[in-house]
Design goal:
The complex is a heterotrimer of chains A (250), B (310) and C (545). Chain A is of the alpha/beta class and 250 residues long. Chain A has six helices and 13 strands. In chain A, the strands form two sheets. A nine-stranded mixed beta sheet of chain A has the order 9-8-7-10-6-1-4-5-11, with helices on both faces. Chain A has a two-stranded antiparallel ribbon with strand order 2-3. In chain A, strand 4, helix 2 and strand 5 form a beta-alpha-beta unit. The longest helix of chain A is centred in the first third of the chain and has 16 residues. Chain B contains eight helices and 16 strands. In chain B, helix 3 crosses helix 4. Chain B is elongated and about 60 Å long. Chain B starts with a strand and ends with a helix. The two termini of chain C are 37 Å apart. In chain C, helix 1 packs parallel to helix 3 and helix 7 crosses helix 8. Classes of the chains: A alpha/beta (250), B alpha/beta (310), C alpha+beta (545). Chains in contact: A-B, A-C, B-C. At the A-B interface, helix 3, helix 4, strand 7, strand 8 and strand 9 of A face helix 3, helix 4, strand 5, strand 7 and strand 8 of B. Strand 12 of chain A pairs antiparallel with strand 8 of chain B, so a sheet runs across the interface.
Chain lengths: 250, 310, 545
């Protein structure tokens, strides 16, 4: 099975988020960047599928400026076979990324695309669904279990609000991985050295003739309010009244 | 400018979040339609018609919509939306999040995820970076496809009686098959997607007390159980219960912190919660600064009382 | 864990990707290229990326950088801000006095930089020269050959749980062999410490003495910002018998670096360097600058303050010590980067000469390094600075008087060498307990909210990397005799005494907050705490410290 794993370079989850004083965005200058954690889960899922079918080929792909290749090397150090870097200096929004990936799907013709369920920077959770929409493929989002049933079918369990769903999907398909699907493996020093020799193709986004113009304009970014009201109630009665009034969930 | 709200339901009952989404829609414009797609779901459409502000309810009642799978739903919407609607809204639940981006791509427009506030008909506020920052975004697309964080908007009244219009579309049938859909009723929800989390700290004093105090409250609320790192370190609960920057980052509708002092790492992990309640006997505990409501009291006195009163 | 470790060999292995290690790596490759030698160089770094554990003031002299890269400006080295104006202040609680700046300590022509950024840049240069750098792989254990020479290191195991059991993701460390291992771990390196003991490298020198540096970055209001302005202070809030001082450097883009260095040879068990630092910021002179600003980063690290007298022997069979692992730091100048880099360069040159003569010289001692360093300018610089810190052990005023005399009159060339006085912590009864400070959350902050700004990350479920040689001593000695000084000297609040009803008092170690400063490994009164490397990639993720 040929599996495509789109990945994204994001601010490392350990780094505290600092909004620029001019409100233009989050300051990531000099900060540590890493593979989006959900994408690592996607890579691990692909590696596990390959373990049960050695003929599989795993391809990681990322879109972005030149420094984005670092995440491709990490992916290859985890065990992905080769990588594609769609190179651009433009700011890419989910729709643009999905369009670029759809082009890669035409040339690579994978049976399965495994994405992380969302990037931890914009928290959009859109690219996998959009890619499925553009390719017209089946989709299964927020997957917590995968069973490779046959050549062209996959059984998956997905998270839905308050429960689980079991789906049988026909390949080719796009799935997105949830937190509990697996724990990604560590990268070893030996595999980092091996990764340096793996194939990495660079494709200019211009050459794919896709409209990647941003459709959304960020007007401002502000830090989330740090402190809350902190209203102190006097007793359980008041607590319950306020709770019911303010949340309407109980 | 007409807005379409995608109803969330199980063919029997309209999910309460749809009411919140209708409210969000009413902040964008006054012409609001609701789409109910399902199978044998007339009662759902009737409930939707009661939601205040709704102009009409579109009812697509067919076997192929029974499970409301994303592929089918996106196709249906794709047939309805372009000619009639300027906005499509759904809840930012797994349902809405699966369908709307797929639809947006097919319409070649952007999608806006999990908005928490409406500034104008094209400008919205949404959290990014796990709720650490709020982004104000303007959409330049002709159709705005939006998922709504339902807890950020009030529900609307049920005082309406909108017209119900039956649709007869012929949607493409996809091969995806639903084998089973199971809602966990008895099973405790997971921390990462629980609507309510009851979390305990070192104030619980022991493993036994943690169990007999926290569990009944969580059961009563159908909540997930979490813990501070101090409680995990003291081995009141295993490590996978840990909430915080170094444990699980959570974003429930309600987070109840019991006997938790509120170390900064813990606060960083609960920041995205909609509503935080703190119960601690130390009035100077940091957690009170991060909470919406605080109760200064001995937790062993008040928790049983709360359980009784809920 | 019974299975054999995988192994890999390099010609040279460097432990630590700081300014010393990276300079050595770069110089090795540059020289090897000139001589058309094939030389493989590997650098191990415990931080998840190069620069992640680097913290320094920092003001640097660019001379060594120019030696490595004469055209560093064109290559885009991150040296942007030249020192424009400099002050030296004596602080009292509410006021200050300007002191003259001894010419030899003048920072004229020096740059205010982020050392972490510089290291990241150096790493890029090193990689383009063919150096293999592995961030996230700490060197955990030493490997010796049968002849007693250093053979290499073992990287840390990954995926052990709290109780040392292997998890599903367990990855055994690998053995890395090299003809020479260069230790560039910085102050109190966990392997360097073992090496110094094993080869008795400090037999001829005085004991090392240490300082603890705490630093914050602030984004200040434009109107309070004066690019290129720097000052150092002595005096308040440090008690007169505590060596140390502060710095405040104004970088670029309204960012200032502010820090306090406290000599770890202080006696009063109640002293808290962290709280002194917080208090320092509330001085009117400092507040004026940071008021209305935003704190963006925090970190801490120990530094070697022994200087000339404490330098250990630098070579041993199979390896060498460079940078602050050896103690190359000019204390009165508060500067070590240029020396760290220079020691790396000298070591690299000596090593190349050593290998050039005979390729079979694997795991031998590169004696040339020790000799050449004595002929280098840095030796002279260290010698001249040698008496300043010991003089301060006689108290601040005497120290200031002496250093003025030493610097102005003798220019460091006095014929005597003052000895470091080793004083240990006094027991809790001997000194007065200080009042616990209050933090306003605007200028002063409690420890954990500070640690948060260091972007700290440790996987929780791993063996504790702060090992107590004897767990009972934490209570029987530290708690009962010294009132647990680790609660106060640890700049990250890792150590906490927990008293619970109906339970014994116990020491809780929150190792996941550890900033890797090594203060506990140094300051513990019974030397009971052993700092070892945690799982790779753990610790702070400093962006521009």
């Amino acid at each position: 099975m040929k599996i495509l794993i789109p990945i994204k370079k994001v601010l490392d989850p350990a780094v505290h988020v600092r909004v620029k004083s001019d409100e233009s965005g989050v300051d990531i200058t000099n900060e540590k960047m890493s593979i989006n954690p959900f994408d690592e889960i996607a890579i691990e899922a692909a590696l596990q599928l390959k373990e049960s079918d050695a003929t599989s080929e795993l391809i990681a792909v990322t879109c972005g400026a030149d420094d984005a290749v670092s995440v491709l090397y990490s992916a290859m150090a985890m065990g992905v076979d080769r990588s594609i870097h769609i190179s651009t200096d433009m700011e890419l929004q989910p729709l643009a990324i999905a369009k670029l990936l759809a082009r890669v799907c035409i040339t690579e013709n994978p049976s399965l695309v495994i994405c992380g369920k969302q990037a931890i920077d914009d928290d959009a959770s859109q690219v996998p669904q959009m890619l499925a929409g553009l390719t017209g493929w089946s989709q299964a989002m927020f997957v917590t279990e995968i069973e490779n049933k046959s050549e062209n079918e996959l059984l998956v369990t997905t998270e839905i609000d308050g429960g689980l769903e079991n789906l049988k999907i026909t390949l080719p398909a796009v799935i997105s991985t949830d937190l509990r699907l697996n724990t990604p493996r560590y990268i070893t020093l030996m595999n980092i050295m091996k990764a340096k020799k793996k194939q990495l193709d660079v494709i200019s986004s211009d050459s794919l003739s896709v409209d990647v113009e941003p459709r959304l304009q960020t007007l401002k970014v502000v830090p989330a309010p740090d402190e809350r009201e902190g209203e102190i109630v006097n007793n359980v009665d008041e607590l319950i009244i306020k709770l019911k009034e303010r949340t309407r969930m109980i | 400018m007409t807005i379409l709200v995608l109803a969330e339901h199980d063919n029997n009952q309209l999910s309460s979040v749809t009411s919140n989404v209708v409210n969000a829609a009413s902040k964008i414009g006054s012409k609001i339609d609701v789409l109910v797609a399902g199978f044998e779901c007339q009662t759902v459409a009737e409930s939707a018609a009661k939601l205040q502000g709704v102009q009409k309810v579109l009812l697509a009642d067919k076997k192929i919509y029974e499970h409301q799978l994303a592929e089918t739903m996106a196709s249906l919407l794709n047939e309805i939306v372009p000619e009639h609607y300027s906005h499509v809204l759904a809840s930012a639940s797994s349902f809405g999040k699966s369908i709307l981006p797929r639809l947006a791509a097919q319409l070649d427009v952007a999608q806006l995820s999990s908005i928490v506030s409406v500034i104008s008909d094209n400008t919205f506020v949404r959290p990014i970076y796990a709720g650490n920052a709020l982004e104000t975004v303007l959409s330049t697309d002709r159709i705005k496809i939006i998922t709504v964080r339902s807890v950020a908007f009030n529900a609307v009244m049920n005082s309406n009686s909108a017209e119900i219009l039956k649709l007869d579309n012929a949607t493409t049938v996809y091969e995806t098959e639903l084998l089973k859909r199971e809602l966990s009723s008895s099973k405790r929800p997971h921390l990462c997607d629980a609507k309510i989390i009851v979390s305990g700290g070192r104030g619980l004093e022991s493993k036994e007390k943690f169990q007999i105090t926290i569990e009944p409250l969580a059961d009563k609320l159908g909540a997930a159980i979490g813990a501070s790192r101090a409680a995990v370190d003291a081995e009141f609960v295993p490590g996978n219960f840990q909430v915080g920057q170094t444990g699980q980052i959570v974003a429930p509708g309600i987070y109840i912190a019991i006997g938790i002092s509120g170390a900064i790492q813990h606060l960083a992990g609960i920041k995205d919660s909609q509503f935080i309640i703190a119960i601690n006997k130390d009035p100077n505990a940091m957690i009170f600064k991060a909470a919406d409501i605080g109760l200064v009291a001995d937790l062993f006195d008040v928790i049983p009382e709360i359980i009784e009163r809920l | 864990m019974n299975s054999e470790n995988e192994s890999i060999s390099f010609d040279v292995l460097i432990v630590g990707a700081g300014p010393a290690g990276l300079s050595a790596a770069i110089r090795l490759k540059q020289q090897a290229k000139k001589l058309q030698m094939n030389l493989s160089v590997c650098v191990l770094e415990k931080a998840s990326e190069v620069g992640g554990h680097i913290i320094s003031g920092a003001i640097i002299e660019s001379r060594v950088l120019s030696e490595l890269f004469p055209d560093w400006e064109n290559l885009g080295a991150p040296l942007y801000t030249k020192v424009a104006q400099e002050f030296f202040l004596f602080l009292t609680q509410a006021s200050y006095f300007k002191l003259p700046i001894p010419t030899q300590f003048s920072n004229n022509g020096n740059y205010i930089i982020s050392l972490g950024k510089l290291c990241r840049w150096l790493a890029l240069q090193a990689e383009s020269l063919g150096v293999e750098i592995f961030p996230g792989f700490p060197a955990a254990k030493l490997l010796y050959s049968s002849d007693g020479s250093v053979k290499g290191v073992v990287t840390a195991d990954m995926g052990l749980d709290k109780k040392n059991n292997q998890t599903d993701h367990y990855q055994q460390g690998i053995e890395i062999y090299a003809k020479q291992v260069i230790f560039a771990e910085g102050c109190r390196g966990s392997l360097s410490k073992q090496i110094i003991n094993k080869y008795k490298l400090d037999n001829q020198s005085e004991d090392q003495v240490y300082g603890l540096g705490l630093k914050e970055l602030w984004e200040v209001q434009e109107s309070n910002f004066e690019e290129g302005e720097i000052f150092h202070t002595v005096g308040w809030p440090l008690p007169a018998d505590v060596y140390g001082g502060s710095f405040l450097y104004q970088l670029e883009n309204n960012i200032i670096s502010i820090g306090l260095v406290v000599g770890l040879d202080y006696k009063n068990t109640w002293l808290s360097p962290y709280d002194l630092f917080q208090q320092f910021k509330s001085h009117p002179y400092i507040q004026k600058i940071i008021k209305g600003g935003k704190r963006i980063s925090y970190g801490a690290r120990t530094l070697s303050e022994g200087g000339f007298q404490s330098l250990p022997k630098l070579t041993f069979p199979g390896g060498m010590l460079i940078g602050d692992s050896a103690g190359f730091l000019n204390v009165p100048k508060l500067k070590g980067t240029h020396m760290a880099m220079q020691s790396g360069v000298v070591a690299a040159d000596a090593l190349i000469q050593h290998f050039k003569g005979n390729v079979n010289l694997a795991n031998k001692e590169v004696i040339g390094y020790g000799k050449q360093i004595k002929e280098n300018w840095m030796w002279d610089e260290l010698y001249r600075a040698r008496n300043i810190k010991p003089a301060f052990s006689l108290g601040l005023k005497t120290g200031l008087l002496y250093s003025a005399f030493d610097s102005y009159v003798l220019r460091g060339m006095g014929v005597w060498t003052l000895k470091h006085k080793h004083v240990y912590l006094q027991r809790k009864g001997k000194t007065k307990k200080s009042i616990s400070p209050e933090y306003d959350g605007i200028i002063t902050f409690e420890r954990l909210s500070s640690v948060y700004l260091s972007n700290i990350h440790h996987i929780e479920d791993q063996p504790c990397h702060l090992q107590l040689k004897d767990a009972t001593k934490a209570i029987s000695i530290n708690y009962k005799q010294y009132a647990s000084p680790e609660e106060r000297y640890c700049p990250a609040g890792v150590y906490k005494i927990v008293k619970q009803p109906n339970a014994e008092v116990r020491l809780q170690i929150d190792a996941q907050n550890c900033l890797h400063c090594k203060a506990c490994d140094i300051k513990d009164p019974s030397q009971n705490i052993n700092w070892v490397v945690p799982e790779g990639g753990s610790g702070p993720n400093y962006a521009m410290m």
